[in-house]
Every structure is written in structure tokens, then in C-alpha cells.
Amino acid sequence: MSIVAILDLHVAPEFIETAPEILAAVLAQTSAFEGNEGNETLFDLNDPGHITVVERWRSIEDDNAYRAWRAGDGASNLGDILAGPPTLTWYK
């Protein structure tokens, strides 16, 4: 069953200008990961540091494999630009 993962990010003020470029590089890898069916990035019009990423996955197993990869060999520098930990929510 397809799922949607919503990643809610708050970028540190000093990285707001460069965040879209960094996020695009990270999401290019996400898009290439097996089971990813697409991503959409939403930029909050009222808060330039608030970004929401909508990821579509073929299954929760594919998403879990991706998260495990990101926690290990696929670690990115995305966490370096955030003001706090991201929030991740899954929907079906």
C-alpha cells in the first residue's frame, strides 16, 4: 500500500538563503531511492524558515529502508541547517 511521509522542517535563520539548494540535493537522492514515487517541497509563505516535504512511497517498508539508509551510509548535511529536529508523520 502506498504511503505519504510528511517531513516538517524549520531551518536556522542563517541558512534560509541556502536551504533550497541543500534540500534539492538531498531530495535528488531521495527520488532515486527504490520505492520513492515522488516528492514535493512546500515553502511557507509566512515563515521563510518553515519547509514541508511531501514524500510518496510505494510501501512503509520502502520508507523504512530509506530512513535506515539516511541514518547510516546515506547521511546528509540537512540536519546541519535545521533549527531543531524535523517532525515526520506518515499517512495512508
Describe this entry's structure for a reader.
The chain has 92 residues and is α+β, with helices and mostly antiparallel strands. It has helices spanning 19-32, 60-71, and strands spanning 3-10, 36-43, 50-57, 87-91. Strands 2-3-1-4 form a 4-stranded antiparallel beta sheet.
- In which range does the helix fraction lie? 25-40%
Largest sheet, in brief, is: 4 strands, antiparallel
The low-pLDDT segments are none
Oligomer: single chain
Task: Identify the overall geometry.
Answer: globular
- How many H/I helical runs? 2
Percent of residues in beta strands? 25-35%
Overall mean pLDDT: 97
**What string gives the helices and strands in order?**
EHEEHE
What is the end-to-end distance? Answer: 8 Å
Q: How many beta-strand elements?
A: 4
Based on helices, strands and strand pairing, what is the structural class? alpha+beta
Strands of the widest sheet, in order across it, are: 2-3-1-4
As a whole number of angstroms, the C-alpha radius of gyration is 13 Å
Give a nutshell description of this structure:
The chain has 92 residues and is α+β, with helices and mostly antiparallel strands. The chain is built from two helices and four strands; from the N terminus they run E-H-E-E-H-E.
Blueprint (SSEs and pairs):
Elements: E1 3-10, H1 19-32, E2 36-43, E3 50-57, H2 60-71, E4 87-91
Looking at this protein, list some descriptive labels.
alpha+beta; 4-stranded antiparallel beta sheet; 2 helices
